[in-house]
Design brief:
Elements (H helix, E strand, L loop, with lengths): L13 H16 L4 E5 L5 H8 L3 E6 L8 E2 L14 E5 L7 H14 L4 E6 L4 E8 L5 E8 L25 H8 L3 E9 L2 E11 L2
Parallel strand pairs: 1-2, 1-4, 2-3, 4-5
Antiparallel strand pairs: 5-9, 6-7, 8-9
Length: 205
């Protein structure tokens, strides 16, 4: 994606800020010292992560995004196990599916530990939230899948080659394909932006 794609007005909506919070929260759970982010976009994740003490290196094909490393996600220029965690947020869908699998296999190769990704999930949901400040500021958030007869066919829109839960790309199929390279540990959708689904994988072996 070009630098212009990441403008504040069109890209950094409230839901995406919440998604970035989840990115940071998951990384901090992993106690990583050295993190590789593939496809850094406007660099918000790296900026905030480094303010909190993490070391983040970025890789992208586009020099205008000022990545630390110029290169392709399908052929990462790093040794095996070079990073504690490797992540890619809302990036792999910008590659044709078979190339996305190659990129994920490369992520698994250069990670010494977990691999963290987020992907667009096209399954519509109803969202409910309830907050009370009277009992320890409790917040309850629930996502309920909307009924549908059949998954829609994905049509390339100039950005996404595929999306989760469209025809031929069910969550079950995609996680099975990705699990050839790493073990799925957890998956969840961002309540404030359910189009973003996180998947946390552990390195095999």
């Amino acid at each position: 994606m070009t630098k212009e794609h990441y403008s504040f007005e069109s890209y950094l909506d409230k839901g995406r800020w919440n998604s970035i919070w989840h990115q940071l929260a998951e990384i901090h759970k992993l106690n990583a010292k050295r993190v590789l982010e593939i496809g850094p976009g406007p660099g918000v994740f790296k900026l905030i992560a480094e303010l909190s003490g993490l070391k983040v290196e970025t890789l992208d094909l586009d020099p205008d995004l000022s990545p630390d490393h110029l290169g392709s996600a399908t052929s990462l220029p790093f040794q095996d196990g070079a990073f504690d965690v490797v992540c890619a947020f809302q990036m792999l869908e910008h590659l044709p599916y078979e190339k996305a699998l190659v990129a994920f296999s490369e992520m698994a190769r250069v990670s010494a530990g977990p691999i963290l990704i987020s992907l667009p999930d096209a399954r519509e949901v109803f969202g409910f939230s309830f907050r009370t400040q009277w009992v320890r500021n409790i917040l309850v958030e629930t996502l309920i899948p909307a009924p549908r007869l059949r998954a829609p066919i994905h049509v390339f829109d100039g950005e996404h080659h595929w999306e989760l839960n469209k025809r031929k790309f069910s969550l079950k199929k995609v996680t099975a394909d990705f699990s050839r390279y790493a073990e799925l540990h957890d998956t969840f959708r961002v309540p404030e932006k359910p189009f973003h689904r996180f998947l946390v994988f552990n390195k095999k072996g």
